[in-house]
Amino acid sequence: ERKKEKKREKIKEKRKRGKKKKKEIKTKKEKKEKEKRKKKKEKVKQKRKKKRKKKEKEKRKRKKRIRLHTNLVEDILKKYRRKILFTNNYFWTLPVDFHLGTEMMVWFLFFLFCDSFQKWMKFQRDFENFKTACIPWEMKIKEIESHFGSSVASYFIFLRWMYGINMILFGLTCGLVMVPEALMGKPYGSLPRKTVPRAEEATAMNFATLWDFSGFAQYSVLFYGYYNNQRTIGWLKFRMPLSYFLVGVGSIGYSFMIVIRTMAKNANDDGGGDDTSFNFSWKMFTSWDYLIGNPETADNKFASITTSFKEAIVEEQESRKEENIHLTRFLRVLANFLALCTLAGSGYLIFFVVRRSQKFALEGLENYGWWERNEVNTVMSLLGMFCPTLFDVISSLENYHPRIALRWQLGRIFALFLGNLYTFIIALMDEINLKLEEEKIVKYNMTIWEASLYNGTIPENSTAPPIQVDPADVPRGPCWETMVGQEFVRLTVSDMMTTYITILIGDFLRAVFVRFFNYCWCWDLEYGFPSYSEFDISGNVLGLIFNQGMIWMGSFYAPCLPAINVFRLHTSMYLQCWAVMCCNVPQERVFKASRSNNFYMAMLLFILFLSTLPAVYTIVSIPPSFDCGPFSGKTRMFEVISETLEHDFPSWFGKVFGYATNPGLVLPFILLMVLSIYYLNATSKSYKEANLELKKKLQSVRIENY
Amino acid sequence: MGNKQTIFTDEQLDAYQDCTFFTRKEILRLHGRYYEMAPNVVPMDYTKDPDVKLPMQLIINMPELKENPFKERIVESFSEDGEGSLSFNDFVDMFSVLSEMAPRELKAIYAFKIYDFNTDNFICKADLEKTLNKLTREELTAEEITLVCEKVIEEADMDGDGKLGFADFENMISKAPDFLSTFHIRI
User: Fold this and answer.
1) How far is B132 from chain A (nearest CA, A)?
2) B-proximal residues of A, 239-278, CB under 8 Å
3) Complex ipTM
4) Where is A370: in which H helix or E strand?
5) How far apart (Å, rounded) are the C-alpha atoms in residues A559 and A211?
6) Chain B, 96-155: which have a CB under 8 Å from a chain A CB?
7) What mean pLDDT is predicted for residues A239-262?
8) What are φ and ψ of residue A137, in 5° steps?
9) What integer pLDDT is reported at residue A25 of this predicted model?
10) What kind and span of H or E run contains A650?
11) Among A278, A281, A691, A703, the residue to mutate for chain B (most B Cβ within 10 A)
12) Which end of chain B has the smaller Cβ count within 10 Å, N or C?
């Protein structure tokens, strides 16, 4: 029994020990857990401390930055202002006009105490980088500049600028006129105006007809006649006629705005006017063109600088010599007379040729070959090729200073092209009148035709269900607007072809001939006749300006014209860049580009003004065709505006507009504008006079001190 | 924006864009040009602002400057030590002033420095003669040279000291129509 008791005691002790151990283990676990919790708490506390420290650091940094900013920002602002003012020296302007200078001032104050100030600066800088990266052909132009100097490169910069304007015009016409009609208007074949007439169907797909822009090309969104006169089209309720009208007016307005803006910019850069008081100083310090990197051009430049100094010295020494005034005057009068004769002759030739083509048109163009059909265009292009050289020869009689001679030359070629263009337009007007007459006859015939459809089955003066006629069979009015558009497109295309062929034959083949036949020819071809050609800057610039004038005139009637012009300028840039580098030599007298740029702009402005006149005349005074175009059915094209005012705007708007267009209000407004122009002119004259007087005073003071 | 370059830190690039008229791409391109003139001397990594200068001989052989009669003077006026060795900062500075975007006043300051051969802050008759000889490759006779230099001083010298100070030069050059377009190097 004692053994059992002892065993029981031992077991009890063991249990007690076991319990103690468990308790120990428990307490140990608890301790561990407590320790873990403590560690976690400590960690959390440390983290919080770190965060607090970071925040304090950032606060300190911000304060530092603000202090730095207030010191540095002034410097940065100055530099940015300078940079921004002169970043727009490029001719290329994007439609987004980002006036960084004024924006900076406003946002600077706002973001100064924000952290995002730096981010904003970075965004602006990135945007500037993006903008400069978008400018095309920069490397090409730089190459040309280094070989040929700044004058030839100025033509390509001008070309690039024109390309920009045409891209915008293309965007307007394509996006707001052609694409909506293509997407939302009635499809081809649904209306008579949208279908090729039965008679022409056979030849509609031929390449010759398409090249001539008739056939399927004529009955498409490319020309005026395709557009329907429905007031709204599609689910968007897009107002097609209104959009067509506004795009036409808007593109002219935009072109005016941008040309004048560029002119104003150039005038500021000019450095103020006709100053000959620093002739020699300028020759000494500004004649070397730092852009020249080619040894050949450098040689030419050295030679031209030397000759220009010698010329100036000779002029200075002989400035008191009296020349034979009477002989030079007589020669100049003779030269002007000859030039006038040439101009009159060319004008008459165009007129005669246009009359002949009218005769051909009356008798049906199908009876005549290619020459008769394209007579007008080819004659105009040929005149454009040969008359300038004739004027060059005549100008050698005049013995002017080269710059003045160049201006006369430009003026005469300008008059030549103008005269040609206007005779062309007058011929077009004749054609339009003919078509209008024809239209009346067609209208009369339509009623007879419609009656013949019903074939006497239904008595007159009662309504009848319209008979389904295939649109191709409906007799058509002569759509004079499409005809006008076609003429302009054909002229542009033929001009383009002529330019390319002239470059290929006149420059490339000539260069090939001179290069390879030089070995087996009696005289040195490279130095004597014909030698390599020089790049004709003025001729090319004038060609570009007149081409643009035609685009402005014709784009109302042929929305595809800006697209064709964009294509033409794009290819022209590549072709001419290649031709210049490959076939041309730098000019002997490297022509300075800076001042004449405004001369070209002035001519462009003049051409723009002249181009808008015919378009405005036709819009305002000629009734649109009755069966084609977005204005068919109206008595005048601009009635679409009054129609929009009636339907789409509240009534009081129409009243206000009516009052505003009252002649009683418009005439005083015009009078006010004329008076303000007169006043501004007078003040600018007085400023110029004051300027001159100050200069004289300066000179007299200088002489006194000397 | 994803194009990682390790030549400059972002702050350096920003600083360059602030102080010059160049964009980020152009600065990187300039560094490429600077590097290819002396690949064994110029480091590709500019993050530590290394003190590397290229001698004048290398720089005046650049295609943009090779044909310029004033190339030595240009490089000398932009170098800090006046001897013609350019660090990268001077290099960028030079092309920034000569770029299209620099304003007229800034260009006038440096043009004055360039044409002042004896660095006495005046363009005297000797400086003018040197300029003329460089421009015409010494094709004019001595009388013609004296005539031209006299005419220049007569035209531009306002304070009557017989040489052109900076004020005279600036006054004359600010009216020049061709100055901005000729005093321009594209790189």
Assistant:
1) 7
2) 269-272, 275, 277-278
3) 0.89
4) helix A370-373
5) 17
6) 98, 100-103, 106, 111, 115, 128, 131-132, 135-137, 139-140, 144, 147-148, 151-152, 155
7) 90
8) 60, 25
9) 83
10) none
11) A281
12) N
A297 vs A280: CA distance, rounded Å: 23
Strands B86-87 and A584-585: unpaired
Helix (H, G, I), strand (E, B) or coil at A433: helix
Got the DSSP string for A118-158? HHHHHHHHHHHHHHHHH-TTHHHHHHHHHHHHHHHHHHHHH
Q: How far apart are CA B82 and CA B85, in angstroms?
A: 8
- Residues in chain B with CB shorter than 8 Å from the CB of A290 are 68, 98, 182-185
Classify residue A403 by burial, with Cβ atoms within 10 Å: 0-12, 13-18, 19+: exposed
Q: Which residues 608-647 in chain A show a CB within 8 A of chain B?
A: none
Pairing of strands B53-54, B86-87: antiparallel
Contact criterion met (CB < 8 Å) for B152 and A280: yes
Contact A66, A112 (CB under 8 A): yes
Cis check: omega of the bond before A530, within 30 degrees of 0: yes
Coil, strand or helix at A695: helix
Cα torsion A669, A671, A674, A676: sign: negative
Residue B32 sits at the chain A interface (C-beta within 8 Å): no
Average pLDDT, chain B: 89
| DSSP SS3 for A534 | strand
Which residues in chain A are closer than 8 Å to B158, comparing Cβ atoms?
A: 698, 702
Amino acid at A685: K
Q: In Å, how far are A118, A297, B20 from B13, measured between CA atoms?
A: 14, 36, 10
Set of chain A residues whose Cβ sits within 8 Å of the Cβ of B131: 284-285
Query: Could you give the C-alpha distances from B70 to A66, A291, A553, B75, B78, in angstroms and in order?
Result: 44, 13, 50, 9, 13
Residue of chain A whose alpha carbon sits nearest to that of B182: A289
Residues from chain A that touch B175, judged by Cβ atoms under 8 A, are: 271-272, 275, 278
Nearest chain B residue (CA) to A86: B101
Mean pLDDT of the region A357-385: 76
Beta-carbon contacts of residue A599 (< 8 Å; ≥ 6 apart): A407, A410
- Contacts of residue A689, defined as CB under 8 A and 6 or more positions apart, other chains included, come to none
| A144 class by beta-carbon count within 10 Å (0-12 exposed, 13-18 middle, 19+ buried) | buried
Residue A588 near residue A647 (C-beta atoms within 8 A): no
**Token reading at A14:** 């063991």
Tokens of B79: 């170098």
Distance from CA of A379 to the nearest CA of B (A): 40
Contact status of A133 with chain B (Cβ, < 8 Å): yes
Residue A475 phi, psi dihedral angles, 5° rounding? -70, 140
Nearest partner of A593 among A132, A140, A148, judged by Cα: A148
What are the residue ranges of helices labelled H in chain B? Answer: 10-19, 24-37, 56-59, 63-66, 71-78, 88-97, 104-115, 125-136, 142-156, 166-173, 179-182
pTM of the model: 0.64
Distance CA A42, CA A670 (A): 85
Distance CA A630, CA A229 (A): 4
Contacts of A491 (CB under 8 A, 6+ apart): A377, A380, A424, A550
Give me A162's structure tokens. Answer: 């024109």
**Using H for helix, E for strand and C for coil, what is the string for B28-61?**
HHHHHHHHHHCCCCCCCCCCCCCCCEECHHHHCC
Report whether A226 contacts A181 (CB < 8 A).
yes
Q: Residue A318's pLDDT is what?
A: 56
Residue type for B72, please? E
Q: Is A82 on the interface with B (CB under 8 A)?
A: yes
pLDDT in tens, A390-440: 888 888 888 776 556 767 787 888 888 776 777 677 778 888 888 888 888
